[in-house]
Amino acid sequence: MEAHGGRLAVEVLRRHDVDTVFTLSGGHLFVLYDGAVQSGVRLIDVRHEQSATFAAEGFAKVTRRLGCAALTAGPGVTNGVSALTAARMNGSPLVVLAGRAPQARWGAGSLQELDHVPIVAPVTKSAATATSAASIVANVDAACRTARTPHRGPTFVDIPLDAFAPASIELPAAEAEQAFRGATPDPDAIARVAELVGSSARPVLVAGGDVYWAHAEEPMRAFAEAARVAVFVNGMGRGTLPADHELAFSKARSVALREADLVLVAGTPLDFRLGFGRFGDARVVHMCDAASEVAAHAALEASTAGDLAATFAALADSGAPPGAHDDWIARLRTHEQAQRAAELPSLEADTAPIKPARIYGELAKRLDRDAIVIGDGGDFVSYAGKLVRSYQPGTFLDPGPYGCLGMGPGYALAAGVAHPGRQVVLLLGDGAIGFALGDFESLVRHGVNVTAIVGNNGIWGLEKHPMQALFGYDVVADLSPGIRYDKVIEALGGHGELVDEPGEIGPALDRAFATPGVSLVNVLTDPADAYPRSSNLA
How many CB atoms lie within 10 A of CB 135? Predict the structure, then answer.
């Protein structure tokens, strides 16, 4: 193909199924933009490069395709570093293309001259500079392949201005998604796991985001049903087994992990969210999409590495003695039902100030089965993780283990662009909304349908309450009370409402969902309410 380097880069992206690029306008990217226009690739622009990169990751999350962001040189790249890091920890397939000062004058002090590669290399799977048209094609293709190959993650290529010169280059062939599912797992390792499941009395499966990325939800379900294994999910694993499936549990997690004799952890790290792999006396199995992800710090009875869909399909064929775990399943179901009954009063609490759980009680009544729910915050969004139920894959998005706030508006933009006919709900703490409030203008301008809910308690709740418990006082944990975020959204062209009585929550949500475009319901919540948590920072 004969074209300038911007067109060549975009044509390579198209061969990796990229049809949307998120960006913030910058002169170093003009040739790339021209390539996108010529090739029919959609450009979605935002107000901050962090939001562009989060939107690209969010697009990957809600489509299970490669996400792409284009960042201008210098501060454009450094503004995207936190989002790149989050994508790395989330295992999200993302390629970031960046502008770069011209190589012919490197060292002379061109505008925004910065060597980005050493900065982003520690938080990406690969980082490179393309120095010619041929290099653009080769580096962008390699970056796309690396991002899509398990264990997935972000990659980076920057392109100097003078590398975009026209050239005639043969483009790589397109490859189907199946080519990026991972290595064939070791049959002996799978046989060992099957043996452990068959000999256990109280097995538990914890499924994480890599099950989602591997399109492994159906084989996982077949395995769970064949072996009668209780299933818990975290992160992007939510919805891989519908929340109302007989083997899906969430409220019985603590008792299950405490009493299990076998814990299978699939597609998620044995990190702080899972007690670093310590589950009492249970034998532990780690099932990963790549050998690099198998926990080296935990005492494992067995492990597998490779294509998780193939892994679960092989385990499903092994099965387990029919009914072998039914007493265990029944015990967990009894506990699950008791916990749900115990939390019902909080979902219906008619108290003022408003308790956060009441908001979720009202929201649950109005969510479609395929609604995409995005959580961006601390205490308020912790309630979302506890109280929102997911029925389909790719319908619950949170920051992940990196915990970087400010991802919400970018994720919501991506979800609204990718799925314009579905409910998109953005849940925000009043601390989190401050990180990317300006990008609500991007949501309005691009015409996406997003309903945002702010739990507005005027504090950094995730910090204030623990500091008070530890020291008897708190510092730097207060915000201005009652900020009218609803008025800000109105000024930006959206629909906003303030709610300070529990009985007003439901009607306000109905109006928000019924209003096309962007709506924000600003709910004043009780600052004395603290989410009950047992995990710590390390």
Answer: 17
Phi and psi angles of residue 293, each rounded to the nearest 5 degrees, phi first: -95, -10
pLDDT tens-place string over residues 442-457:
999 999 999 999 999 9
> Distance between CA 425 and CA 415 in Å, rounded?
10
Burial 7-38 (b: 16+ CB within 10 A, else e): bbbbbbbebbebebbbbbebebbebbbbbbee
| Phi-psi label, residue 47: left if phi above 0, alpha if psi -120 to 50, beta otherwise | alpha
**Site of tokens 């739990």:** 455
Predicted confidence at residue 178, as pLDDT, reads 77
pTM exceeding 0.85: yes
CATH number belonging to the domain at 2-163, selected among 3.40.50.1820, 3.40.50.2000, 3.30.70.270, 3.40.50.970: 3.40.50.970
Question: Is the fold of 187-332 the same as that of 348-524?
Answer: yes
Tell the residue number behind the tokens 């597609």, with chain if given. 267
Q: Residue 117: what residue type?
A: V
Could you give the CA distance from residue 113 to residue 110 in angstroms, rounded to a whole number?
5
Residue pair 358/368 in contact (Cβ under 8 Å)? The answer is no
CATH 3.40.50.1220 correct for 187-332:
yes
pLDDT tens track for 121-138 = 999 999 999 999 999 999
Tens digit of each residue's pLDDT (9 = 90 or more) over 291-349: 999 999 999 999 999 999 999 999 999 866 777 899 999 999 999 999 999 999 999 99
Cβ neighbours, 10 Å, residue 254: 11
Report which residue type is found at 190. I
Strand pairing class (167-168; 2-3): antiparallel
DSSP string, 480-522: -TT--HHHHHHHTTSEEEEE-SGGGHHHHHHHHHHSSSEEEEE
| Structure token digits, residue 490 | 């109105």
- What are the residue ranges spanned by the domains of the chain? 2-163, 187-332, 348-524
Q: What is the DSSP string of 436-447?
A: SGGGHHHHHHTT
Domain 348-524 fold is: Rossmann fold (3.40.50)
